[in-house]
Amino acid sequence: MLTHFFALFSTVLLFGTVAFAPAQTLPSADEVFTAAQKKYADGASMRIKFVMKSEDIRGSLALKRGNKYILELSGRTIICNGKTVWNYDVAQKKVVMSDFRDNPDNISPERIFLNFPRNYKPALTIEKSSNDFLLTLAPAKARDQISDMQRVGLRLSREMRLKAVAIFDGSALHEWDITDIKPDAGLADSVFEWKPPQGVQIIDLRD
Fold it and tell me: How many CB atoms lie within 10 A of CB 186?
């Protein structure tokens, strides 16, 4: 469920180098969305640094296709190698191990950042104060909606740098300011393998 994905964040997005200049004719929403997919969502791996706006929490995310990711927040690290999820609480010296379950209707870091909702239809507006592109993605048909993800917002500079991501789940808006993003990060599978430090309590919930 989308709420489960957001809980992990709480507890615990173009045309290469081509830019759309302000003086030029504005591109269409489809052109901007295609450019965003080409630069960000077509890669194999990615590194991101972000700030959760609602809670002013800084964190980082490394991810790779195959549902591999490392989410780091203050005092908590969540690692997944595509099969096992380690939820490590540094202060309590405790790690909870569980099986990763790839339900197509669930939200995962990969589906947000390495896929984008491809069946969603984009709409484009311009923010006057910053001149940024604001892409709003919404399912064209009800069957296209992924879990509770009713709308996705992408803020992109005129140089096509992803600056922010927002997701509306029907009741709340979840926003992340992207402070740094590196597509095609070249991450090896070994990056996502993890062993608990000595002295850490292990709670194994795997089947």
Answer: 11
Q: What is the pLDDT of residues 79-123, one digit of tens each?
A: 999 999 999 999 999 999 999 988 776 778 888 888 877 789 999
Strand ranges inside the chain, DSSP E:
45-52, 57-64, 68-73, 76-81, 84-89, 94-99, 120-126, 133-139, 151-156, 162-168, 173-183, 201-204
| pLDDT of residue 18 exceeding 60 | no
**pTM for the model:** 0.81
CA torsion through residues 165, 168, 169, 171, sign: positive
Domains in the chain, start-ordered, CATH in brackets?
2-13+19-204 (2.50.20.10)
User: Is 51 in contact with 57 (CB distance < 8 Å)?
Assistant: yes
Q: Convert 117-145 to b/e letters by CB count within 10 Å (16 or more is b).
A: beebebebeeeeeeebbbbbbbbeeeeeb
